């Protein structure tokens, strides 16, 4: 198979697997991802050559020292040149650009590099490592007079330039080597501890470090781990003679759906995504394998229950099992519902034939009080929601939730093709996305109708004819 055919197939699989809004955002922001990646590589000295980083350092000093004269004499000229370039570039564009698989791979690779270069926002700091407010106030009060004295003799622009130099060169190779050399000196370490203790008023750390402390400081950090909360809506409708049943009208939400009202598998058949291995290039040009494995963190599904006082809890309950209904009762209920619908359709043209639309205010749904079993009752249009059933309450739903965790392991492998490893095919493909997720399979294959729903449709069609 030729390379062109492989590229076309890979791009086709990517567009079929990934939702279009995500694809559009990924493609449109690809140039900005490249700019951010280049800027981070320059500031973190991650490129193979350090010329760009030295130029950035020189530009920083030029901005700090020449900013006053530049803004005074060249700021209007810079605005005119910028507007001219923007106008010229807008007039040159005649048609929309074409995007290929190379653009998608470049965008994902840039995002991966950005994630590796930026600090992890989910890193938790222990309370013992956070200085108290009184400590910060003490340090500020002690350092404020020397700061005023320093700014009196040294221009503020020079101080800002020096501070920026420390920040820019912090990740440089020579700065890292210098810090390691100084950190290995016991005299330097204890001098820093002594100054820190005098500023903060805290006692000096103990001189003798145990073997367990040294081993803990050299321990390897675990891989990336994220927690996800899966939510499945269980929907039921009240039928005369049948009470509440999962048999719903053909034009409304399915019996089991997601938050966006898309059909999903019930909790007892819901499966997590298969393990996926992605082969990418890291910032050093090495081939790495990133394997993501899903597993349930909780043993069972739980129903979301919200009390009147606002307390929210997740209660374990047995997952319902589909059961057959009495056909005679079903036919009677369908006939009664047909009479009610025909009477209401003459007075209200819209009625229940309009497809269900999700409320714009999603936070309102989160604040709705439920009953002890987690049910939220509504009218014939799934509106007027409350925690109590009764007259005028023909629909109800509740939310089943379960927490899953995905663990990612990164390992260096031999050079080869980049892409995603498809578990079903057992091989590595150049495609951006090969593994079809469970949710995608659910969307592609329509939900199998239960015998109860088929008999309901048949009864309604007979009543219409």
UniProtKB/TrEMBL annotation:
Residues 358-367 have a biased composition (Acidic residues). GO terms for cellular component: endomembrane system; peroxisomal membrane. One of its GO terms (biological process) is peroxisome organization. Keywords: Membrane, Transmembrane, Transmembrane helix. Residues 225-304 form the Peroxin/Ferlin domain. The chain crosses the membrane at residues 20-39, 51-68, 147-170. It holds the Pfam family Pex24p. It comes from the Eukaryota. SMART domains: DysFN (SM00693). InterPro entries: Peroxin/Ferlin, Peroxisomal_PEX28-32, TECPR1-like_DysF. The keyword Iron does not apply. This is Peroxin/Dysferlin domain-containing protein. Coiled coil: none annotated. It is a multi-pass membrane protein. Residues 336-367, 435-465 are annotated as: Disordered.
